[in-house]
Design goal:
This protein is α/β, with parallel strands linked by helices. Helices cover 49% and strands 11% of the residues. The strands form 3 sheets. A 6-stranded mixed beta sheet has the order 1-2-13-12-10-11, with helices on both faces. Helix 2 runs antiparallel to helix 5 and helix 13 packs across helix 14. Bound molecules: 6-O-phosphono-beta-D-fructofuranose (F6P).
Length: 550
């Protein structure tokens, strides 16, 4: 047994779980009118209601004890102090430095990183203002109208999510495009309507070795040069964001057009760095800095609030409660705002690439569950698609419901109905519908006895399905910054408790390695025999069936 599952705090939680597993939240709410105020937290206008969880005061106390025993506060300090907490890559984890707004030094290896961070922000400001003010001209002296970000994973999802989330702040004569998939349809569909003379490409790759991104980048350059016909024009149309300056220069990017990243910024935590350049171009640097400010406020809260009042810590502990004690396998993110449509995708990478691990910090295979299967979609779309399983299926799926209190558009009738769904769904998940309630409804509909008996079991909702509800005034750079930072720190706390390294991603390597071997085998028409029969069979079928010019 691992240290974690043997610990007093864990075992106390196991016994406590047996005590409360059959409690129904409906009864808990009936017995305690103060439940909402006791189990909710607020940071500025961000309200975090966690009262619709299968918890009691004792649960929260025991979970906080677990966090204490796992030294969460000390680990928070280690992160902020620039210690190499990503031990398998021997790197500090300092995305908090990217949004440090209080001018204090943040050091790693004895070196203050803040001067570099500030220089990067200045460079982003200068560049984004030139593009937005139309001072930056393409090779034909026309201003830029379209920005194409080429990147994948952390070099794509953050800017994609945030530019969409903050669309109302965007400048209207600039169109943002994101190309991540090596499937040629993605880049060719994107380039279809663009003109080389008014297009700017941002090649975003921390490593500058990711093959999907490089293949797309080469295709973009070829497309551009077909019209521009002059390599010198590349300087006005291609910039890069990378930690691998040499490779970016080799690609043909001018040194001045390279925005530096650092190895202490993980890809999936990098939207606060120059990876956020599309965000800065789209909404302007002042708004981008508001985004940083929002994240910084959550960082400060995380660092200073006591565990039981600490939003990321409580959110994390609730996740542990369901994953490890209720043995729930999944976790749903349900934003109720059209502009947050990419949020579940973004947080899925952040969570699953961080905590999808089975080896602990001491090199042992864990004997407990770690990161859940994270999924989600816009709440309204989900209601008409997968909520059925959440309400009446056999699985327990805790969910976070996320909604702004008002929408900028203010078209009468829309936002109220949206919010009615937010409250109704959270209530339905919690209360469910009892047999008596269902029977009374069917009777009121005037159905005959026989039909009532057939329908009755299908009309019962067990309820007792946990949700957190997160509300904030409006979706703006500040509130988005707070929200994303909240989830980043939630992931961190869970990683600490599970004793895993949330900041490496070795699990993505095997597929990459094998793909590069297979790619070599696809060069010719020879029969492949080097794999198992299935892989050989599939490759050979493909080779026989592909068009001759492929
Ligand atoms: O394949 C996984 C990964 O390494 C992610 O962690 C990262 O966000 C993505 O690929 C892109 O990496 P890069 O920015 O180095 O191209």
């Amino acid at each position: 047994m691992s240290k974690l599952t043997q610990s007093t705090a864990w075992q106390a939680l196991e016994s406590h779980f047996e005590e409360i597993r059959d409690l129904h939240m409906r009864d808990q709410f009936a017995e305690d009118p103060e439940r909402f105020s006791r189990f909710s937290l607020q940071l500025d206008d961000l309200l975090f209601d966690f009262s619709k969880n299968r918890i009691t005061d004792k649960t929260v106390k025991l979970l906080c004890q677990l966090a204490e025993d796992c030294q969460v506060p000390a680990w928070i300090e280690k992160m902020f102090a620039g210690d190499s907490i990503n031990h398998t890559e021997q790197r500090a984890v300092l995305h908090i430095a990217l949004r440090n707004r209080n001018n204090q030094a943040i050091k790693t290896d004895g070196q203050d990183v803040m001067p570099d961070v500030r220089a990067m922000l200045d460079k982003m400001r200068q560049f984004s203002e030139q593009i937005r003010s139309r001072q930056w001209r393409g090779y034909t002296e026309q201003p830029i109208t379209d920005i194409v970000n080429i990147g994948v994973g952390g070099s794509d999802l953050g800017p994609l999510m945030a530019t969409e989330a903050l669309r109302p702040y965007a400048i209207h004569d600039l169109n943002m495009h994101f190309v991540s998939n090596v499937d040629e349809n993605h880049i060719s569909d994107t380039l279809e309507t663009l003109k080389p003379e008014t297009t700017l490409f941002i090649l975003a790759s921390k490593s500058f070795t990711t093959s999907d991104t490089l293949v797309n980048a080469h295709t973009a350059r070829k497309w551009f040069l077909k019209t521009a016909a002059d390599n010198a024009a590349i300087g006005k149309h291609f910039v890069a964001v990378s930690n691998n300056t040499g490779a970016a220069i080799d690609f043909g990017i001018q040194p001045d057009n390279i925005f530096k990243m650092w190895d202490w910024v993980g890809g999936r935590y990098s939207m606060w760095s120059a990876v956020g350049l599309p965000i800065a171009i789209s909404i302007g640097m002042d708004h981008f800095e508001q985004l940083l400010q929002g994240a910084h406020e959550m960082d400060e809260h995380f660092r200073t609030a006591p565990l039981e009042k600490n939003m990321p810590v409580i959110l994390a502990l609730l996740g542990i409660w369901y994953s490890n004690f209720f043995k729930s396998q999944a976790y749903a993110l349900l934003p109720y705002d059209q502009h947050l449509r990419y949020l579940p995708d973004y947080l899925r990478q952040a969570d699953m690439e961080s905590n999808g691990k089975r080896i602990d910090r001491d090199g042992n295979v864990v004997d407990y569950d770690t990161g859940p299967i994270v999924f989600g979609q816009l709440g309204i779309t989900g209601q008409h698609a997968f909520y059925q399983l959440m309400h009446q299926g056999t699985k327990l799926i805790p969910a976070d419901i996320i909604a702004p209190i008002s929408n900028m558009q203010c078209i009468r009738g829309h936002h109220r109905l949206l919010m009615a769904n937010v409250f109704a769904q959270a209530e339905a998940f919690m209360r469910g519908k009892t047999e008596d309630e269902a029977r009374a409804e069917l009777k009121a509909e005037g159905l005959n006895k026989e039909l009532i008996e057939i329908l009755l079991p299908n009309k019962i909702f067990p309820g007792n399905k946990p949700t957190n509800t997160l509300l904030f005034k409006t979706l703006n750079p500040l509130s988005l910054g707070r929200l994303i930072s909240l989830y980043e720190h939630k992931i961190f706390v869970q990683g600490i408790i599970w004793n895993i390294n949330s900041y490496d991603q070795w699990g993505v390597e095997l597929g990459k390695q094998l793909a590069s071997n297979v790619l070599a085998e696809l060069e010719d028409h020879n029969e492949v025999t080097s794999h198992d029969s299935s892989t050989n069979g599939l490759i050979n079928y493909y080779k026989r069936s592909r068009p001759h010019n492929d």
